[in-house]
Amino acid sequence: MSRNYLQAAVEIAQEAGKILIEAFSGPLDIRYKGDEVDLVTQADKRSEQFIVSRLNEYFPGHAITAEEGTGQDTASAFRWHVDPLDGTTNFAHHYPCFCVSIALAERDTLLAGAIFNPYYNELYTAARGEGAAFNGRKIAVSKVPTLSTSLLCTGFPVRNRRISPNLQYYGEFTQRTHGVRRDGSAALDLACVASGRFDGFWEFGLNKWDVAAGVLLIEEAGGKVSDFAGEPYQLGAPVILASNGLIHEEMRQVASEISRRVPAPGSL
Ligand code: IPD
Ligand code: CA
Ligand code: CA
C-alpha cells in the first residue's frame, strides 16, 4: 500500500521540481515573510499550488500540511507534509542546493517520503519497512564509528536569529569532529545522513514539513533520530538529533552538555 503512496510522492516531487528549475533559470521575484531574511519566491508558491492540487486529485480527503499555507485539515488519519521548496535562501541566491520534500504519515507513523533536488536530478525515497533509496539504489547510513572522525551538518533558523543557541553548538561540534557543514536545506541535510554523505545532523525549531521525509529516510537507512534526551523524535519537536546510530550517544552527550550552559528551548 505504502508503495503506491511513494510512487505518487515521487511523481509529484519530480513534476514540482520542473517548476522550480524553470523559475531558477529566470529572474526571481523575491519577497520577505515578515523577518528580514525569511524569503519566499513565486516558485515556492507555484510549486506548492501544484503539489496540493495533485495530492487532492490523487487522495481526496487526505489532510495536507504545506509550508505556504494552502494545505487543508480533514478528519482523515492520513496527512501529507509538504515543503514545496526547501532551501529558499539558496534558491534565491542561485546556489543549487534546494529540493522538494513530500511525506505521508498515518497518524504518528511516517509511511512514505520523497526528497528531490531537481538541479542535480537527485531523488531520495523511503517507504516504511521497505528501505531507503537514492536514484533507485538502496542506501544505508555511514559506518563512521566515532564523533571525532565524523562529518556533521546543521542549519540556522531564518526567524528569531538573535535568540538561536545554535552558534554555540556549531562551535563545539566543529572542534570535536572533522567538520560541520551548513548547506541551507534541512531536508537534503537529513537525506545526506541517510545516504552516508554526512554522519550526523542537529537543528532547532524545524517544522514538520522540513523533516518528515528525511526522518523516514534515516530510519529506513538504519540510522537514528531522537531529541537531546535520546527519546524518539516526535514530528515538530523543538530539537532534532539524527545520526548513523554509531555516533548518536556521543553526539547526544555533547549536545546535552552544551545545553546545560546554553539552553536549547524546550529540548530536554
Ligand atoms: C529552511 C531550510 C534551512 C533551515 C531552516 C529552514 P526553507 O527551510 O531547511 O536549512 O536551516 O531552518 O527554515 O525556508 O528554505 O523552506
Ligand atoms: Ca520551504
Ligand atoms: Ca523548509
In short:
The protein is of the alpha+beta class.
What would you say this structure looks like, in words?
With 268 residues, the chain is α+β, with helices and mostly antiparallel strands. The chain folds into two domains: 2-138, Fructose-1,6-Bisphosphatase, Chain A, domain 1, CATH 3.30.540.10; 147-261, D-Maltodextrin-Binding Protein, domain 2. It is built from seven helices and 14 strands. The strands form three sheets. A seven-stranded mixed sheet has the order 3-4-5-6-7-8-9, with helices on both faces. Helix 4 packs across helix 7 (248-261). The mean pLDDT is 93. Its EC number is 3.1.3.25. Belongs to the inositol monophosphatase superfamily. Mg(2+) binds at residues 67, 83, 85-86, 210.
Keyword list:
binds D-MYO-inositol-1-phosphate, globular, 7 helices, seven-stranded mixed sheet, single chain, Inositol_monophosphatase_CS, alpha+beta, D-Maltodextrin-Binding Protein, domain 2, Fructose-1,6-Bisphosphatase, Chain A, domain 1, 268 residues, magnesium, binds calcium ion, metal-binding, five-stranded mixed sheet, EC 3.1.3.25
What order do the helices and strands come in, and which of them pair?
Blueprint: H1 2-24, E1 30-32, E2 39-41, H2 42-58, E3 63-66, E4 78-86, H3 88-92, E5 99-106, E6 109-117, E7 122-127, E8 132-134, E9 137-138, E10 151-154, H4 166-176, E11 179-181, H5 186-194, E12 200-204, H6 208-220, E13 224-226, E14 239-243, H7 248-261
Parallel strand pairs: 3-4, 10-11, 10-12
Antiparallel strand pairs: 1-2, 4-5, 5-6, 6-7, 7-8, 8-9, 12-14, 13-14
Bound molecules: D-MYO-inositol-1-phosphate and calcium ion (2 copies).
